[in-house]
Amino acid sequence: MTGIPYLTWRYLQHRPLKSLLLTLAVALMIFLPLGVRTFVNESTRVLQNRAVTTPLLIGPKGSAIDLTLASLYFLPQQLEPMKYLTFKQTRALRQGTVIPLHTRFTAGDSPLVGTSLGYFEQRLLKVAEGRLFARIGDCVLGADIAAERGLRVGDHIISSPQKVFDLAGVYPLKMRVTGILKAAHSPDDRAVFIDLKTAWIIEGIAHGHENLATPGAAHAVLETQGNNITANASLREFTEVTDENIATFHFHGNENDYPITSLLVFPTSEKSRALLLGRYETSRTTGQIVIPADSIRQLLDTLFSTKYLVFYGFLALAAASGIMLLIIFSLSLRLRETELSTYAKIGVSPARLAAIQIADLLVIVTAGIFLATAALTITKSLAETIIPRLL
Amino acid sequence: MILELRDITFSYPQATFTLRLKYFEAAVGEAVAIVGPSGCGKTTLLQLAAGILTPQSGNVIVGGQSLTGKSASERASFRLHHIGLVFQEFELVEHLTVRDNILLPLHLGLRDQEIRVRCEEMATLTGIAHHLPRSPRKLSQGERQRVAICRALAIAPQLILADEPTGNLDPANKRAALDLLIAQARQNRSALVVATHDHDLLPAFDRVFDFSDLFTQ
């Protein structure tokens, strides 16, 4: 290497720390405002993508945003449960595909999503390993949660108890992993999917236990009146569904009253959509119908109402940094006066001398732009993965 | 003649002194000393001869080419290719190695790859070859001066202009530096013009030009 590039390289090399700091300053100056904008735009895009792929959402009355966050992003929200009857009634309208959701429970910090097999079809989720759940007690893991916990098909995962000291509350259920989903870069990647009936077992509506009619369970019999046997507290309830005990699991109460969180509705046509919307707007139902895209737009408007303030704040900071950089460069030129004067005396044309003067500035700015572009590209590509996790 | 200055008039902007020079010349292989007290115009004459300054009137001719009709860029290019300069303060670039300092004309646009060969030759001749990869900051004054002389000579110039080249050297180094310049000028058939106020060195020159009376008020 010879000429101006060589002289510039040697000059920058002579003051590596200064060169590095200036490059980082330029990179930050560019990255901060644009990075904020990229992150906000990607957040918006990721959130809206999920919302627009869910045409309608039916849930209990209350906050439409809470309902959307609980049903689309599986964020824990205090929602009144909805009756399973609503699912039956909505499905009976034959206006589209209706998917029930139960999102009240978790397994560690991962949401447990009770649903039907139709969910995977509507969300275009594919199995990477194993198969979907086939019976109660089975579960299917999102890609991220499986990778993070190192779980494979055949392993087990336990639901988290709601209250440690509530003996009458929800007991943990040990569930068999039957499948792992391919990464979808959505909240599905961090969810544990179970059949709705499995969710009801965790809810305590269904359970399996020793057969009280067998001699081995005599210790647990408190009272027998005809066909009715009352058990005492020593009765052993099953905390895992196995091939041996699955037949003992049974439900109590009226199925129509079983709790669900919400319904995802995929209308067959615009007309169906309008009919469903109209039904909930006009009838005296206990629930509400929500257009998730509208809820998310409303949420984003609130969340990012300050984004322009932040953006312009960083822009002002970038401008101030730019002025400081110019001052630093002009001071640097003064330090190089003797060197540049020598070049001029030896025989450098004024144009070449000017080129030497701005070459290090150009290199630093170019390196800064390159760094900032790389950081922006990484931000954009990571945003898709990170944002669902941040949620 | 390699260098001719004719009917030169020059004054710095807003200065009260004017340099008037009827005629000055330096022939092929000739070593000319310019003497005179500080401020008499020795450096100005060298800068006029190099084309760094342009006279208000008169003509500067180097190697048969008039510099006064050339633009600043053309004069710079001519200087880079044909005139070797040695400065009193050496003016070495501290963040470059000794080799890069000698090859500086190449980095500044000289289109002569032979300079690389001459750089090695000159460094060997002046005894600084082992310093080539080092920084000039680590050299003694005498060594630094030799680097500056090597830089001026490496382009095989027609004209060598040296401004007080021995001003910062001890007597032994002074003589060695001057002998080197004169020997190289004669060997390469260059003209050597040295501005100096050191009268002890004058016998070494072919001709001495006393500049004392040229600045007129």
Describe this structure in words.
- The complex is a heterodimer of chains A (391) and B (217).
- Chain A is an alpha+beta fold and 391 residues long.
- Chain A folds into 2 domains: 3-47 and 306-390, no CATH class; 55-303, no CATH class.
- Helices cover 49% and strands 18% of the residues of chain A.
- Chain A contains 12 helices and 17 strands.
- In chain A, the strands form 5 sheets. In chain A, strands 4, 5, 6, 7, 8, 9 and 10 form a 7-stranded mixed β-sheet that branches. A 4-stranded antiparallel β-sheet of chain A has the order 3-16-1-17, sandwiched between helices. A two-stranded antiparallel ribbon of chain A has the order 2-15.
- In chain A, helix 1 packs across helix 12 (350-390) and helix 2 (16-52) packs parallel to helix 12 (350-390).
- The longest helix of chain A is centred in the last third of the chain and has 41 residues, at 350-390.
- The model of chain A has no long low-confidence stretch (mean pLDDT 86).
- By secondary structure, chain B is α/β, with parallel strands linked by helices.
- Chain B contains 7 helices and 10 strands.
- In chain B, helix 5 (114-126) runs antiparallel to helix 6 and helix 6 packs parallel to helix 7 (171-187).
- The relative contact order of chain B is 0.22.
- Chains A and B meet through helix 1, helix 11 and helix 12 of A and helix 2 and helix 4 of B.
